[in-house]
Design a protein that fits this description.
Blueprint: E1 13-18, E2 21-22, E3 25-26, H1 31-34, E4 37-40, E5 43-46, E6 51-56, E7 82-86, H2 88-91, E8 97-100, E9 108-110, H3 116-124, H4 130-135, E10 172-176, H5 182-191, E11 200-201, E12 220-223, E13 249-252, E14 263-267, E15 276-280, H6 284-293
Parallel strand pairs: 1-6, 1-7, 10-12, 10-13
Antiparallel strand pairs: 2-3, 4-5, 5-6, 7-8, 8-9, 11-12, 13-14, 14-15
């Protein structure tokens, strides 16, 4: 069933979209107050900078992912550079999620709630770009947050703008984005358990039934199509179909075939869409399992600059 379109804000305004509901009621939490907002009719005005937000709520947007927001913009007319999502993390004290609507639509960056007005003002007058936000993310996916810097910052440069939607699957996806090393690709598939006739990688059914937790086998659908050559992490969230879909997308990119351990670039689809974790392919199964069960968060797998990651200890 199609989701309702988002309203069109005035040219100088930004959307503030509630994506968390309980019994059909929008859960804004303390975000407007913490952000220094005051009501002005149907708008929320932030701080002395005067940034105006247009609140939008509809229970149909419950649990709406940041990557799905660009597809809900009204057709025709100017597109605002950014939308603000009041989602579950924001409801419980985390920073709101900013969603890029123009440069690389669908990628996200969290910002401290108290700085929302300042950062939005800079984005709207173009003294700050969304690329700047992404380059300034900490390991938790927060712009200039208090956590460490990532050892592998999320890239911002893109070489192609248009890609087809990724397959709809409840399993993880392994998407090949580099096509210069065929032998390396085959070696990667072999290390991950091989690929069957249906396009799945996964464990041998006769293998050990009690694998080590850090080397948990990974079951995923392989997407091996040159149409995705050059796909960048920030572009992935907008390509994941809405509804029942994968919880994790891992990219086999150039780094996979040039760095030790054949690392994969795993893309966050939920907390900070487009944020990345780069880890050896043999650890990705453990990541998928822990994310599915809710035992760990995406940020727990983002290696910090200058810090030996826990999976190498």
């Amino acid at each position: 069933m199609p989701l309702p379109r988002l309203p069109r804000p005035a040219p100088a305004d930004a959307l503030l979209v509630c994506t968390w509901y309980e019994d059909g009621e929008a859960q804004w939490g303390e975000l407007p107050a913490v952000a220094g907002g005051r009501r002005d009719g149907d708008l929320v005005v932030l701080g002395s900078g005067g940034v105006r937000l247009r609140p939008a709520e509809d229970p149909a947007w419950d649990d709406l992912r940041g990557g799905s927001v660009p597809a809900l913009l009204p057709a025709g007319g100017p597109v605002p550079p950014v939308a603000v999502l009041a989602d579950l993390p924001a409801r419980y004290g985390g920073g709101p999620l900013l969603v890029d609507l123009t440069a690389t639509p669908g990628r996200g960056a969290r910002v401290p709630a108290a700085r929302l007005g300042e950062i939005l003002a800079a984005l709207l007058d173009a003294t700050l770009t969304f690329d700047d936000l992404v380059r300034g993310l900490d390991t938790s996916g927060v712009y200039q947050g208090g956590s460490d810097r990532p050892a592998f910052p999320t890239p911002t440069a893109v070489t192609r703008r248009s890609f087809p939607e990724l397959p709809s699957a409840s399993a993880s996806l392994l998407v090949r984005t580099a096509y210069d090393d065929e032998a390396g690709w085959r070696a990667l598939l072999d290390e991950l358990g091989g690929i069957d006739e249906g396009g799945w990688i996964g464990p041998d059914p006769d293998a050990d039934d009690h694998p080590e937790a850090d080397d948990y086998p990974w079951e995923a659908v392989v997407v091996d199509d040159p149409v995705y050559a050059g796909l960048q992490p920030g572009q992935v969230p907008a390509l994941v179909p809405r509804g029942e879909h994968t919880t994790m997308v891992a990219l086999a990119d150039t780094g996979t075939f040039t760095r030790p351990g054949r690392p994969l670039t795993v893309v966050d689809l939920y907390d900070t869409p487009g944020h990345t974790a780069v880890l050896p392919c043999r650890r990705v199964g453990s990541m998928a399992c822990n994310l599915d069960l809710g035992n760990m968060d995406f940020r727990d797998f983002v290696a910090a600059e200058g810090v030996r990651p826990w999976w190498e200890e």
